[in-house]
Amino acid sequence: MRINFKQQELIESFVGALKEKFPEVRFKEVTESPEDPNDLWVNVTRPADDDRMIELLEFSGEKTTDILMDYGYHISVMPTGR
User: For 37-47, what is each residue's pLDDT tens digit?
Assistant: First the structure.
């Protein structure tokens, strides 16, 4: 998997924003999407509370849409396990 400098910068900023808003969520790793190796998945732990999970998905959806519109990189958050 190849991540360029700009993608790395965007991922670090995105993960920082996630940690600030959702301190209970932990970053796990970045992987490429099995559907398209140009798309990146930011794997994080899943919040224990369903309401927090919804908030996480809404927050990350807005952030990743901004990244896609502003920079053309498709990045998704993938909450998994704990």
Answer: 889 999 999 99
